[in-house]
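stage 2 :: seqdesign
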């Protein structure tokens, strides 16, 4: 039976079954960080999810903070300012309706929603469409966390571009004081909601039902707001490259690669601005992306101080991955081996050349091109299978507060990078993770900052190794020939009698 149809306020038909997650809380409590974290997680699961931020909509209509009426954030507003508020709110909620009308599954309403009257209005509007409501209230009594959130807003929030930090602190402290006067925490026990203290220190769940809502709760129980960096690098070259069953150790070139990777990471962490050499370049530098309904806004990436952060290295239980991580142990870095980080099992085509695969499975290219995310050979894994296998790793990645370097094969790195970037599942097979690149990702409330360092040129290194091997072989052959000539010259033939 088809799902029931409902008519929205815009007059269009809409199918039932969606969820609206509504954030609640004072400024500087990490609501936007939370909203985009939920979006990343659900998109990685294949759920059509979108964040709708009230501040982004306000900037679309009215501009930045310095362009607003003086009483816009005040306790007492004149009628014109109240109408401006209503105009912004109506535009945002109409956008959410449009998202649901076009098949969206989960929308995140990122705003203060700081009193019962406002929350009741949202609840009535969307429950009339049979949308499931789930409120998430962000409470915070940790002044250090609030200060850290304000610093992050100073760096990444478009409203404060060009402001000095002291001015941002003064402005936000005043706004917090104004909102505290009108703020009403959630007390209605009939309302489905989650209350978070300090983003994970304590969590209270009330009347939450259904698969997706419970998955969101599970995710919230593992997340935090502490700043950290996540690095990604491929494992070094193995003695046997194209045979999964061999589980081969690193080649001599792979050992050199592992040492070079360790040197780069340790240098970056000690001198994030000064680490440059002829062997390492910033091959790609992306900017922080602000996820907004009107498209992306960008801001240059700034240096990140990691000298006071601890580092963990995660690798798979495969020999090439574990040996690539080995140099970090000499620096006292904790190395964690996880079997779930092993590369995709190629199944029946393990060790086959492209010609052999094409001869045995002539239609495999057509089938793979049709569904690269779900395609698998017999007894093999697909990217979909791999994503399911990596879910506990993602939960642990959200939970851990230290910086993390993940060393694995490209298929695994694609899935994990896709999660952090908020890519859709069908985009995972096309994410580029080159051998010799160190990917540095810095999650932020308004997006992610990404740098990609090129520190190793595999073609040049292999050419250098082959040339060196050829020279050694030539010298060895020349020595043998010289020894043979000397031996022949030293032994004279017997004279006939």
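stage 2 :: out
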């Amino acid at each position: 039976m088809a799902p029931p149809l409902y008519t929205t306020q815009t007059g269009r038909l809409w199918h039932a079954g969606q969820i609206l997650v509504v954030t609640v809380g004072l400024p500087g409590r990490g609501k936007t960080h939370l909203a985009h974290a939920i979006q990343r997680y659900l998109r990685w699961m294949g759920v059509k999810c979108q964040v709708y931020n009230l501040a982004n909509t306000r900037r679309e209509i009215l501009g930045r903070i310095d362009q607003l009426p003086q009483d816009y954030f005040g306790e007492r507003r004149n009628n014109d300012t109240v109408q401006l508020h209503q105009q912004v709110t109506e535009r945002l909620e109409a956008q959410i309706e449009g998202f649901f009308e076009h098949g969206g599954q989960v929308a995140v309403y990122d705003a203060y929603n700081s009193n019962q009257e406002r929350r009741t209005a949202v609840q009535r509007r969307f429950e009339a469409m049979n949308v499931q409501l789930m409120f998430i209230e962000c409470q915070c009594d940790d002044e250090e966390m609030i200060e850290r959130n304000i610093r992050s807003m100073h760096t990444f929030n478009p409203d404060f571009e060009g402001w000095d930090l002291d001015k941002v602190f003064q402005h936000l402290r005043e706004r917090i004081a104004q909102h505290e006067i009108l703020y009403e925490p959630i007390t209605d026990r009939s309302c489905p909601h989650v209350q978070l203290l300090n983003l994970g220190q304590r969590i209270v769940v009330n009347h939450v039902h259904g698969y997706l809502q419970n998955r969101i709760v599970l995710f919230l129980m593992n997340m935090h707001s502490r700043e950290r960096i996540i690095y990604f690098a491929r494992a070094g070259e193995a003695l046997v490259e194209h045979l999964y069953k061999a589980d081969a150790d690193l080649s001599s070139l792979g050992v050199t690669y592992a040492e070079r990777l360790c040197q780069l990471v340790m240098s970056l962490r000690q001198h994030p601005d000064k680490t440059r050499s002829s062997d390492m370049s910033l091959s790609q530098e992306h900017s922080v992306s602000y996820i907004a309904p009107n498209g992306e806004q960008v801001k240059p990436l700034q240096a990140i101080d990691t000298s006071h952060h601890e580092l963990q290295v995660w690798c798979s239980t495969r020999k090439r991955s574990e040996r690539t991580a080995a140099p970090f142990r000499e620096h006292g870095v904790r190395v964690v081996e996880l079997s779930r980080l092993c590369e995709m099992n190629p199944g029946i085509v393990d060790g086959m050349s492209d010609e052999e695969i094409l001869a045995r499975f002539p239609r495999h290219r057509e089938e793979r091109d049709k569904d690269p995310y779900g395609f698998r050979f017999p007894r093999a894994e697909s990217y979909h299978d791999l994503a399911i296998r990596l879910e506990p790793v993602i939960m642990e990645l959200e939970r851990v507060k230290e910086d993390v370097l993940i060393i694995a094969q490209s298929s695994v790195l694609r899935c994990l990078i896709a999660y952090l970037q908020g890519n859709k599942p069908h985009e995972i097979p096309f994410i580029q993770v080159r051998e010799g690149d160190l990917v540095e990702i810095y999650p932020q409330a308004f997006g992610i900052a990404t740098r990609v360092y090129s520190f190793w040129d595999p073609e040049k290194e292999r050419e250098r190794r082959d040339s060196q091997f050829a020279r050694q072989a030539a010298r060895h052959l020349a020595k043998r020939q010289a020894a043979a000539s000397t031996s022949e010259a030293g032994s004279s033939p017997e004279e006939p009698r």
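stage 3 :: structure notes
- The chain has two domains: 19-222, 230-345+381-454.
- Residues 1-16, 275-301 have pLDDT under 50 and may be disordered.
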